[in-house]
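DATA SHEET
Item: assembly model
Revision: 1
Owner: S.N.
Input lines:
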Amino acid sequence: MNGWDRFVETFFNARVLARYWPDIIDGLWVTIALALAIIATGLTSGLALALIRSAGIRVLNWAIIFVVDLFRALPPLVIIVLIYFGLPSVDIAPSGFVSTWISLALVLMAFSEEIFWAGLTSIPRGQWEAARSTGLTFGQTLMNVVLPQALRITIPPLTNRTIAITKGTALGSVVAVTEILGQASSAVSNSYNPSPLTLGAAAYLVLFLPVVILGRWVETKFAWKR
Amino acid sequence: MTATETPRAPTGAIVEARGIHKHFGTLHVLKGVDLDVAERELVFVIGPSGSGKSTLLRCLNRLEEPSAGTITVDGINLLDPRTDLNHARQRIGMVFQSFNLYPHMTALGNVTLALRKVAGKTRAEAEEIGQSALARVGLADRAGHMPGQLSGGQQQRVAIARAIALEPRVMLFDEPTSALDPELVGSVLGVMRSLRESGMTMVVVSHEMGFARAAADRVVFMDDGLIVEQGTPAHVFEAPRHERTRAFISQIQRH
């Protein structure tokens, strides 16, 4: 067997691929569910924190900054492991799925809060002054004038960060989540062949490449003439 | 000539500012300013940069919080904590040096936002009022344009339309032409002149001395946080009493 044949046998083993692709598809659905849950909750809570922070209540802002810095500093895997293996000692036993979801949502919340906040503060003071001078309240100005402009600015960094954190769903395999990598790893153990990992990589591409391309499109779509 | 010789008799003050002080940290920017503006009067405020003229103007709608003093606009005590400031601000239009149009909305969208959100108009009512406000500044045909597609002069006229659409009792202009290319200044001053002719009460901080001569009832000269001198344009420009006023006038007339 020459090197090329051995390479194909190892990573593109037809028999193993045929046997395990349904497992990878199952994992794909779990990854999609996990990713959607993380994006929905992470971005919403990140935006909520940024909006609360813009009200400028000092004690609240200290708390927000502390939480945000905490979850930006901790490696996501550490948070997952802490929740999954730590919480049962206080009689809360979240599943691997829930542990991964909460952990990555907290990380996405922290990073997206900073991005939303940067967007909000980048809007010139004159926009606030013009709106307030016509009698709009703080909240009306925030929601009608400042936030729409801030969101457009935040879309490129937000897309990148969201993709980066959502890819972390693969970390769930460590706490027995049957997402793509988890399925692929068990398939490798059962078949003594790494080909399922090839399938897994392909599944990640199928899932995230369109998102990356969508992000690029949204970026140009949302630009407007100054 | 006689019409500009004496300030017109007050028909009732719209703006009454008394003893206005403003501190920025250790900086004492306004040091006890009194300013009354009568109905239909155009008061023109001049002075060197840092004299406090813009700060005074911004105190008149409480974009700046005065450190001390009282301000009454159209009978409303602006500094009373019980005053509904957002309601009061509808009666005080403001135009900024940098236009501050909302870049994500059309010209009409800029004009109608407060009409819908503050004045409680329906979208149809707001758009009708907005269209006629844009027509008043000569931009009826630009309603659907985004601010980025308009020249500076057109943007500033949209900003004026945004303010007058709310039918304010007084309009504040904070250096409205300072950010404009010289050839675009005329269109904005033209709109301000027609506003003035329609009887709008106006306080204008600006360096457009030609406009002041032609349209102002009263010129107020400020320096170092105080009103140094005030009177008719003829008086302040041709025969200033104070040395500081003379120095300032001769300086700007050299340019």
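QC remark: Chain B touches chain A at residues 61, 63, 86-90, 92-94, 96, 98, 100-104, 113-114, 117-119, 146, 148-149, 159, 162-163, 166 (CB under 8 Å).
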